[in-house]
Structures are given as structure tokens and as C-alpha cells.
Amino acid sequence: MGTVTCTIKDGSTGAPLHPLLEDPQKLLANQRDEDGSALPTFNASDGLTLIAGGERIFPADYLDAAAEQHLPLSELNVSDDLKTGVTTICVVWPDPGGDTITLDHQADKSTNDNAYRLTDIPVKNS
After folding, report:
1. Which of 31, 40, 43, 59 is the most buried (most CB within 10 A)?
2. pLDDT tens digits, residue range 24-60?
3. Is the pLDDT of residue 69 over 90?
4. Do the Cβ atoms of 41 and 73 come closer than 8 Å?
């Protein structure tokens, strides 16, 4: 499991977290392109991937019997704006191995915005 801590400075008018955490490549579907998967994952933090061994590793997911689609093991609703303060986003990824990871968020296909990559993040085994 990994966590991402987002901090908004005092005096901010608000920051939408969703564009920084969603999967911008699949607006109307989950990563598996399953039918009917857009609504259950629309506000999820499913765009945070790991890069390891030349591969992109998406969050682990599970098959929800009620939703009938795979849902990511992550925050499922990050639609609120964070006005001031700190929030922690939790995501579960398969173990990529190694002592460090790279966290990646791809750019939005239509606007090419919100891409970032954090490298050399130490892995803590608890």
C-alpha cells in the first residue's frame, strides 16, 4: 500500500484533487475498458501508477459484485476541493520489488495537463 500526502497552503481558495489523481487516459471506462465502468470509477484516484522494470503498474483492483466491474483499491471519491490543510490518499499496488519506486501520473489526452513523475521514492516495508 502506498500513500500520497497532498498539502494546500493557508489562504488557498481551493484545489481540486481529482485532476491530479484520476486516470486521464480512460475518461469513460476503467483501466480494463469494462462495460459500465465509467460511473463507479469516475471520481477515483486510479491514475496514480508506478513505473518499475520498464512497465506501468496500475493500482490493484477487485471485482465488486454489486457494481459488476473491477474497482481500484484506492480512494473512490476524490471530487472535493481541498481548501487548506493536508489530506492523505491511499492506493494499493502490486509489489514492484526493489528499494525505490517511481510514481507517475500521465497527462490528460485532450489538454496535456497534470502530468508529473516523482522518482526515487524509498519503499518502506512494515
Report:
1. 59
2. 776 666 777 777 667 777 888 888 999 988 899 999 9
3. no
4. no
Asked if residues 101 and 50 have their Cβ atoms less than 8 Å apart, the reply is yes
DSSP track, 10-53: TT---EESHHHHS-TT-TTS-TT--TT-HHHHTTS-TT-EEEET
Taken in order 23, 59, 65, 17, the sign of the CA dihedral is negative
Q: Which residues fall within 8 angstroms of residue 44, CB to CB, at 6 or more apart?
A: 21, 22, 23, 71, 72, 74, 75, 76, 77, 78
- Total domains, the chain: 1
Residues 6 or more apart whose Cβ sits within 8 Å of residue 110? none
Give the domain extent around 42. Answer: 2-122
Amino acid at 78: V
Return d(Cα 122, Cα 12) in angstroms, integer: 30
